[in-house]
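Troubleshooting entry. The earlier prediction with NDP gave an output that would not parse, so I re-checked the input for stray whitespace and re-submitted. Clean input:
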Amino acid sequence: MSEARIIDGKAYAAAIIGEIAAEVAGLKFQPGLAVVLVGHDPASQVYVRNKAKQTVAVGMKSVEHRLGAEVLQDELLALVAALNADAGIHGILVQLPLPAQIDSAAVLDAIDPAKDVDGFHVVNAGRLAAGLPGLVPCTPLGCLLLLKAALGDLSGLEAVVVGRSNIVGKPVAQLLLRENCTVTMAHSRTRNLPEVCRRADILVAAVGKAEMIRGNWIKPGAAVIDVGINRVPAENGKTRLVGDVAFEEAKAVAGWITPVPGGVGPMTIACLLRNTLEAAKKAALF
Ligand code: NDP
């Protein structure tokens, strides 16, 4: 059997970003994205810097608010309220994780659902679950766009999503259901996980456990989307990134597979910009 075709998330993301930039250039106003970063988490600092860079690169306005780790909940809520009221801001993203003294759910729910470009607000989660239009979380949307680019119509396919978090697993499952897949959600209590995975025409791994999904868990010809980002020790004392899927083993069995890095990761930021553009265009209608 031939090897899996690689789904090049970097290339798809670049194409989406190019389309967004062209559309922004034709608008009569400039969409604005505000990113709120609390504390000094090094990974969050890198994400926020990248997001700001790409936002500016597509011609949007990027506004960054950096707050100290000791910020009070009321101060953060006041900032969110000010951004909600700012007509020049169309998307608001509060970078997670937030420090322990902050109730993250309360902060996310304070964001105007129309500006909730992360798609984490309960109103947007509810709209997705109810099959209504709304802002969809970026990483799950990225997974869906990659699957549609590779497979086309997903209708009737067996999909297994491993992981049920609110930010990845659950919305991925909702999106696949919307595409008429037959969806199974697996998690840490699932019995016979390898057997469940072997049923999948589409296997999405969003667990956070390095190379947990082995080649012999995969149905020959399946499309495998690896959301996991895990840092593991490499030779010469350094570290490297791997996904939740044992890539080399899986590649020998699957029909399609996303690499880590260079698969789902780049799609997340492209979908954030897509959501910001969508929110901005909708705001311009009112
Ligand atoms: P969470 O830790 O919130 O959720 C992990 C899920 O995996 C849970 O539902 C958990 O089950 C399940 N799980 C844990 N262990 C097992 C197991 N042994 N067998 C089956 N299921 C298991 O993680 P996230 O959803 O936030 O992220 C998942 C991965 O995706 C991480 O590696 C993260 O870094 C990555 N990620 C990548 C992004 C990107 O841009 N590419 C964006 C966001 C995340 P239970 O609910 O029962 O505990």
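This one parsed fine. Residues 12 and 267 are 7 Å apart (CA to CA).
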